[in-house]
């Protein structure tokens, strides 16, 4: 309790946040929408899947808040099933808010069904960061419809997987009703919880290996160049095939 009071009476001047989470069936993770809600502006594109980690920054309640949005993985899939470029983008997210993030917000839609296999998927994907991510994580429940605290608690009580996730994260959680953009008090309380977490972590951000950033950028460049070469080859093959078909049609007629 003392840490919470300290965080509220001496708010941090800068907060660095990384949004993480997965997708399940046709239900998006909601990370981009949560990022827009926190920053109070539509700065992340919610009309498409996030393919690259992106950083946006705004002043929120007298704090300079940096939010990094990341590609989502499939909740039910192993890390090996996640495309290599997505893995690199997720890893690179911590290098987009130097010297490192204060908090990871694990975004989970309230109505998301969480089977047992999600536990392994989550652990494997968080290992991409090579750090003690859980000690810097708050579970961020989101909903686009009105949802009471009791409904959320009931959801947790009936979901062993949610209980396990919360235990890994020190039972830290927050709820955002994304349909009520006018209620900025939701964001203020979230920032206060983040500041409490920072205080409890001895004012340390998540450690980041700077040398890894250079390696990741090189890997991304190599993968992008290889993909570009493959695309060019496919285009040439299609053009060649088209010319062959057109030539045959001319001979036929």
Automatic annotation (TrEMBL):
Task: Quote the subcellular location field of this record.
Answer: Cytoplasm, Cytosol; Endoplasmic reticulum; Golgi apparatus; Mitochondrion
Task: State the superkingdom.
Answer: Eukaryota
The GO terms describing molecular function are:
GTP binding
UniProt entry tagged with the keyword Disulfide bond = no
Task: Domain (AIG1-type G): give its ranges.
Answer: 16-214
* Main location (coarse class): cytoplasm
Q: Name one GO cellular component term.
A: mitochondrion
> Which keywords has UniProt assigned to this entry?
Cytoplasm, Endoplasmic reticulum, Golgi apparatus, GTP-binding, Mitochondrion, Nucleotide-binding, Repeat
A Pfam match: AIG1
* Primary role: Exerts an anti-apoptotic effect in the immune system and is involved in responses to infections.
Similarity comment: Belongs to the TRAFAC class TrmE-Era-EngA-EngB-Septin-like GTPase superfamily. AIG1/Toc34/Toc159-like paraseptin GTPase family. IAN subfamily.
Q: What's the name of the protein?
A: GTPase IMAP family member 8
Organism for this UniProt entry: Poecilia formosa
Q: What is the lineage of its organism?
A: Eukaryota, Metazoa, Chordata, Craniata, Vertebrata
């Amino acid at each position: 309790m003392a840490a919470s009071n300290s965080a509220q009476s001496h708010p941090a001047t800068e907060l660095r946040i990384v949004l993480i989470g997965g997708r399940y069936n046709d239900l998006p993770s909601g990370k981009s929408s949560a990022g827009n809600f926190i920053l109070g502006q539509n700065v992340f594109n919610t009309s498409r899947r996030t393919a690259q980690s992106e950083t946006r920054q705004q002043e929120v309640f007298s704090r300079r808040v940096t939010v990094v949005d990341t590609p989502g993985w499939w909740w039910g899939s192993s890390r090996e099933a996640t495309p290599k470029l997505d893995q690199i983008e997720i890893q690179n997210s911590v290098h987009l808010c130097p010297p490192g993030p204060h908090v990871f917000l694990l975004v989970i839609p309230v109505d998301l069904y969480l089977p047992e296999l999600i536990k392994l998927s989550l652990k494997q994907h968080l290992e991409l960061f090579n750090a003690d991510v859980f000690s810097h994580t708050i579970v961020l429940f989101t909903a686009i419809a009105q949802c009471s605290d009791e409904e959320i608690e009931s959801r947790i009580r009936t979901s062993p997987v949610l209980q396990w996730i919360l235990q890994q994260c020190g039972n830290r959680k927050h709820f955002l009703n994304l349909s009520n953009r006018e209620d900025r008090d939701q964001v203020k309380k979230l920032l206060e919880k983040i500041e409490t977490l920072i205080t409890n972590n001895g004012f340390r951000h998540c450690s980041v290996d700077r040398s890894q950033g250079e390696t990741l950028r090189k890997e991304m460049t190599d993968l992008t160049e290889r993909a570009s070469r493959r695309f060019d080859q496919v285009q040439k093959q299609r053009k060649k095939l088209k010319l062959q078909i057109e030539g045959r049609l001319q001979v036929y007629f």
